[in-house]
Amino acid sequence: MINKKVANVHEALQGVSDNMTFMLGGFGLCGIPENSINELVKLNLKGLTCISNNAGVDDFGLGLLLHKKQIKKMVSSYVGENDEFERQMLSGELDVELIPQGTLAERCRAAQAGFPAIYTPAGYGTEVAEGKETREFDGKMYVLEHAFKADFAFVKAWKGDAAGNLIFKGTARNFNPVMCGAAKITVAEVEELVPVGTLDPNQIHIPGIFVQRIFQGETYEKRIEQRTVRQRST
Amino acid sequence: MINKKVANVHEALQGVSDNMTFMLGGFGLCGIPENSINELVKLNLKGLTCISNNAGVDDFGLGLLLHKKQIKKMVSSYVGENDEFERQMLSGELDVELIPQGTLAERCRAAQAGFPAIYTPAGYGTEVAEGKETREFDGKMYVLEHAFKADFAFVKAWKGDAAGNLIFKGTARNFNPVMCGAAKITVAEVEELVPVGTLDPNQIHIPGIFVQRIFQGETYEKRIEQRTVRQRST
Amino acid sequence: MALDKIGIAKRIAKEVQDGYYVNLGIGIPTLVANYVRDDIEVEFQSENGVLGMGPFPFDGEEDADIINAGKQTITTLPGASFFDSAMSFSMIRGKHVDLTILGAMEVSENGDIANWKIPGKMVKGMGGAMDLVASAENIIVAMMHTNKAGESKILKRCSLPLTGVGCVKKIVTNLAVLEVTDKGFKLLERAPGISVEDIKKATEGTLIIEGDIPEMSI
Amino acid sequence: MALDKIGIAKRIAKEVQDGYYVNLGIGIPTLVANYVRDDIEVEFQSENGVLGMGPFPFDGEEDADIINAGKQTITTLPGASFFDSAMSFSMIRGKHVDLTILGAMEVSENGDIANWKIPGKMVKGMGGAMDLVASAENIIVAMMHTNKAGESKILKRCSLPLTGVGCVKKIVTNLAVLEVTDKGFKLLERAPGISVEDIKKATEGTLIIEGDIPEMSI
After folding, report:
1. What is the value of ipTM here, to two decimals?
2. What is the pTM (predicted TM-score) of this model?
3. How far is C64 from chain B (nearest CA, A)?
4. Which of A39, C44, C173, D205 yields a CA-CA distance of 20 to 30 A from C216?
């Protein structure tokens, strides 16, 4: 078993520097690598390009990096729910590349799986396809989209082991699995680091080969963005 | 819950006919849809095109269809271990398209995921790439390979439920998941059909949306091709 | 009387058929789930990675790890599954989802839709909408017929950046049910108490009126 | 004396480094696992969908659902995982596997390899070999230096249909360890008791001999 365990978030983030490109898992605030993000805030890196489906909220997730103006460019599919983001974007301080969510997922997976590019129908005929190569297959039009290139991927899993194997919970899975192995170095933080051999080999979502470093996160706030409930009928 | 359960293999194979293209899961004899194959033999369909990593052995798996000369064309990555196959191929009775194993997997996944084609480095510069479009990305050459088109996919899972959710065991997983939803109709046979709600939603390998029909196989021989063991030290 | 959001959701719910996998967008579409007939089997997919969504959780039973694409806490029904974003869009791009219901800012008579950006003002992003409209064979748009200023959102050509081209088949607004045809918007139904004349006034795109237009039953 | 298959496997085992994920082909490569130093951590991947392979099972403990790419029954070690064929080749194509060891019928001095087809005679297929050689940065070929008729399999140009072009970096045969360079096969080591002259005779491709050629230690 090849040991990927590192002591803490500090050790896990060795080698990060200004102007790097990062992938960050999560959908909204669900399944985001909280500990890694907080460490990036602490390290006060600048000029970052962040590939992440969303950009957090004003005071949580990637919003924290935005507030300190650490991010130069965001590559996302949806960036609502964040006033500071909107301000920086509309003022031109922040470079934003909005791309379809499925394209975002598949450009990550292409990097993970060694594909240089993919053809997707998403965005054909819209400004997303402007300047991009398009092509017809079987009477339908597709846009050529390239694999991402990133320095680090930061993902968050539910459980993991020192071999780097990961299991995700519920919809906190989202982009995390497709970002594993899609950057030069993949850092996984987990809620629970379990002994090697306790995870069922049939039930591992991401085999450790896609993960370079793994650590147990210290705390997880797991903030809920839209708490919606129904009343119990009496 | 949308019910995909059918009573038996006979009902599961409604609509199959001569000259159709089938995908069949399995690697060697591991994880092959035994019940569906046996039914195809019984139905005595002719002129079939079969997309399957291997072609069974002389008296088991797809070898049974070969013996009855039901197969017109095989699309596979490896076809050793089958004398009748080799005879039919070398004599020209059987049309064989050999393609790299990763290409086979990804042409299935492309069909499942709505991609028209993929670029893979596998086979570049070899006869596999002859007549195919090639292209350079970042200094490396790739071959354009198209998504498969198939009428039925026959897969075999370990456990499944009436919603069509599937779980695979060990290396019997192999091509089965990537063929689900990659044909017009996907037929899943399972060793054990469990009540809906008993499978953990976090641990489902293939969600039911990719499966049109599911049934519990009557018997599974699960033959071992190369029994290799070590002796207990005394 | 023009329909409210619930009325639109109720009318769209009638389009949902037995055995459908349905993707619901944020806003009015989310409400549709509440009004689907209970004698048919339908499964709801959300692009953030869940199939088989159930109702909102009871107070106190929310799980931060189980949300829908609108980031709302949800529950799952028996037979549900969770998966990653790549597999989620395999379902969408691979045409495994039978019906997509989403909102729009504008729709044009050739079936174009705009719903993700107002240049210089608002840019929330397209989320999964571009993938959905590019691949879904069956798209219903839920929207108000006019904007707050009373201007039509049912247009000859969209003025906003597009989300997809030539993809919308059916539109349910607070005033009408429309079908996108080669010749323009074919008026299928009127909201209760709304006249054909009312709809004509609220529609900038070509409106095709053939014979008597029935009132919706909701 | 020329090495036997086990000797070749033992020599290749010395190329395996701590922390490597290794894909072993069928035949001699499979034997390599038995001779890797036990003070380093290595994980074996098999393209049919397993990472963390262990030894063969004890008699009576075989599981038909747990095999390697050679269809042999295997076991797994703690930390192992199973996955589908698409993910397996994501590991391979995505360059996550550190070392690929495979057999060959022929290798040419520009690094081409042929190992899947003898036209008109034998066509077993390429299995995963074309994917492996097209993407692996570190490929070692395990093979006999000559065929049964005594003809060299280390050639100027391959005569059989290729599996991959310009991809082989190192070759371990029953006679020698060779490195593929711009100028030809560089002789790195001799098998015990085998002379440079023996190797010259058995090699059709350009052989580069610089200085004293050490004998292998196995």
Report:
1. 0.97
2. 0.97
3. 15
4. C44
